[in-house]
Each structure stands twice: as C-alpha cells, then as structure tokens.
Design brief:
Blueprint lengths: L34 E6 L14 H9 L15 H4 L2 E6 L7 H17 L3 E6 L5 H12 L3 E5 L17 H7 L9 E5 L11 E4 H6 L2 H12 L4 E6 L21 H9 L6 E7 L10 H19 L5
Parallel strand pairs: 1-2, 1-3, 3-8, 4-5, 4-7, 5-6, 7-8
Helix pairs in contact: 1-9, 3-4, 4-5, 7-8, 8-9
Bound molecules: manganese (II) ion (MN).
Manganese (II) ion binds next to loops.
Protein name: Agmatinase
EC number: 3.5.3.11
Function: Catalyzes the formation of putrescine from agmatine.
C-alpha cells in the first residue's frame, strides 16, 4: 500500500503533463538544468486564425505519448542521459501588451542563457522567435537560422509585432546572417529580389532527398552557431492541420524528421516550435507533430555533447 500515492512510473495519460514528463520548475535559474523548455502562449501577433496561445499546453499533452520510449527510435542514445531538461511552464505577461511581452520574453531568454542553459521555446505564434533571437545574439553574436515554414516571414510592411515580419527585422538588427541561413518549405509569395535568405521551397524540398537537403543546409550554415525555428505549417495540412495559416503542398512528417536527424552534430544553440493551434487540430495530430519535432530537436542539440 505504501506505493499507492508514490508511484512514479507514470502512464501515457495521467497526472500533470510537463513536456516529456520532465521536472516542472517555474524558476529554472540556479537549477542544474541544461535545457529549459518554456511555453510562450502568445497569439496576439497572428494575421490569420488565432489560437496558438493554447499551443504549449497541447504540445505538452501530446509529448507524454512519446515519454515511454527510452531511446527515441532510431537514435542510439537516450537524450535525457545526456541533458538535464526541465519544463519551466509558461512565460507570464500582461495580456494584450505587446511591449511588455517582448520585454519579458527577451529578458527571460537572456537570464536562461546567462546561466549557461539552452532555451527551447514552445509557441505561441511565430513572433516569439524575434525577442528570443535578440537574447541569443547577445550571447552568440550573429547566428545562422534554419527556418522551417510555409512563409518566409520577411514582410517589410506590417507592424513590429507581427508574426510575418520577424525575419525582415532580425537581419537588420544583426541577429542572423541571411546568407548563412536557409528557409525550408516555403510555398507562399515573397519579394524574391533582395531576398537575402537561401530558400529550399516546398516543391524543391518535396523533390529532393532528405540527405541532399541536409548537405545543402550544412554547406550554407558553415560553422556559424545555429538557431532552428520550426513553424509547424512547414508540414502539409494533411500532417498538421491545427495551425493558423495552413498552406497545401507542404512536407510530410517522414521527410522533416529525416532532415532534422541529419543535423546531428551541428552547432545548434537554440530552438523553438511555433504555431500549433489546437482549436483547428484533429485527433491531436498537429500537437503530436509539434512534440515530436521538439523532441528531435533536443536530440540534435544533445548529439553534439558526448555522453557524460
Ligand atoms: Mn508560417
């Protein structure tokens, strides 16, 4: 009877659902965590359908389905043997106040980095990446961006708090180097003239092998520190319908997972998964895709660390 309330081998569905059932610790500063998972429940910057503020919770719930596997197939190590990962819950900010949000997220990301930890953010709409990149650039200098998306998010017109303008501002602020960066899965209009980013559009990505894509990405990035941002709408709506601005003709999940695994050993310093919007989801498939991408990114991050 002693273990009635103390059993810790959780099932696939019960009890509080932190990301991958990692320890839940609201204040990660001072902890021995290597990676801090932070939910960023913002959808104030969406141009289409809102709802991504519910994304972090949906991703966490879906992730517990993945938590039973020791080594995620087909990796040859268990990521949690190499990296101490904690879930710091969600960023708290004044609802409706874009400036307050931007300030708090950059500050929180900066504190996490200053304490020698890596941040993995779960969105939220894609705007969240801009304040995070500002914090990262202070620590890593100008980075390469690997950007999975149906949209380039490089639009010049629009407010500074818009989920379609971050990668117009980020190079101007010196946060990322477009010529060392690559956007994968693009299938919407953008100004191709003066578009500094390398693009592997969705048609090309669907025709190329995952290996060829990985090779091309590696040659573009070189030895720069890399930030990976994954807009779930890179995936075709057949694989990820639960998102604000879905576009047909995207990548399938098999191709995306193969590409991500191909980044093993790269100098990935930060990552996020954004735009999961559970109100438009079916059977949690988008949340599961988001959780799986996030977990693969953790493996990619840990693959550069030797087993301790
Ligand atoms: Mn997008």
């Amino acid at each position: 009877m002693n273990d009635l309330f103390n059993k810790t081998d959780y099932s696939l569905y019960s009890n509080s659902m932190s990301f991958m059932r990692r320890p839940y610790l609201r204040n990660p500063i001072g902890s021995d965590a290597d990676v801090v998972v932070l939910g960023v429940p913002l959808d104030m910057a969406t141009s289409g359908r809102p709802g991504a503020r519910m994304g972090p919770d949906a991703i966490r719930r879906a992730s517990v389905n993945l938590a039973w596997e020791g080594k995620k197939f087909p990796w040859d190590f268990n990521v949690f043997d190499r990296a101490k990962v904690i879930d710091a819950g969600d960023l708290v900010f004044d609802c409706g106040d874009a400036e307050d949000f931007t300030y708090r997220l950059e500050k929180a990301a900066g504190e996490i980095l200053k304490n020698g930890k890596t941040l993995m953010a779960l969105g939220g709409d894609h705007f969240i990446t801009l304040p995070i990149l500002r914090a990262y650039a202070k620590h890593h200098g100008e980075m390469a961006l690997i950007h999975f998306d149906a949209h380039t998010d490089t639009y010049a017109n629009g407010s500074a708090y818009d989920h379609g303008t971050m990668f117009y501002h980020a190079p101007k602020e010196g946060l990322i180097s477009p010529k060392h960066s690559v956007q994968i899965g693009i299938r919407t209009e953008y100004e191709q003239q003066d578009h500094g980013f390398n693009v592997i559009n969705a048609m090309e990505a669907n025709d190329m092998s995952a290996n060829d894509i990985v090779e091309k990405v590696r040659s573009i990035v070189g030895d720069k520190p890399v930030y990976v941002t994954f807009d779930i709408d890179c995936l075709d709506p057949a694989f990820a319908p639960g998102t604000g601005t879905p576009v047909c003709g995207g990548l399938n999940s098999d191709k995306v997972l193969k590409i991500l695994r191909g980044f093993a050993g790269m100098n990935v310093v930060g990552m996020d998964v954004v735009e999961v919007s559970p109100a438009y989801d079916h059977a949690d498939m988008t949340a599961l895709a988001g959780a799986t991408v996030a977990l693969e990114l953790l493996y990619v991050w840990a693959s550069k660390k030797s087993a301790e």
